Amino acid sequence: MIAVLLACTISAVAAVPQDALEVKARLRTKKLESGKSYEFVVKTKLAKGLKTDGAGMPSPILQLDVPDCVKLEGDVLTDHRDLARNEFMHAPFEFLMKENIANIPFTLVSEPGPNDVIGISVVAYINGKDGNSKTFVRQRVNLPVAPKAKSKPADPAISSWGGDLGFLQIGDQATDFTLPRSDGSKVHLADFKGKHVIITTYRAFW
Length: 206
Fold this sequence. Notes:
Number of helices: 1
Structural class: mainly beta
Number of domains: 1
Oligomer: single chain
Strand content: 25-35%
Mean pLDDT: 80
């Protein structure tokens, strides 16, 4: 078993604090009934003097992880051609927030339990006040599936969205796997046993 270190690339030494991005959410209903449609609202706010970096990402990305009692409205895309036409996102679990507010429709398919929450992550590249430094900022909140619920801060180290896709979390142990290099050859995780491993991905295809 090999520990996997997850990291992001930063274009410059960043002077942007992690609390530069504020995320809040609430459920817009006074009651919940199985089989009916509802919506929750996600709002984002940047600290004064900051703005998102169009070179890294043109807008913050909203990522959603819902419990079994919630079914988001929309298709889940898996084919890379469909993803490319949809800004490389797994709709409806992930998409660009082109405004600072998003209304997310869903259907309540069963009675929610007391621990059922909607996981909401917002990630963005943000320019520093000097206009040069940039950093990758991620905020995560949990929204209870309950009438008139408001979001609460969650552990930002947890990376989960779109259901259980088997993502590794920071500090997890990984079993051996194989990935292709750009030249078509293969690389095995076991070849790097005892070393730190950084895995990066690109949201594009050519």
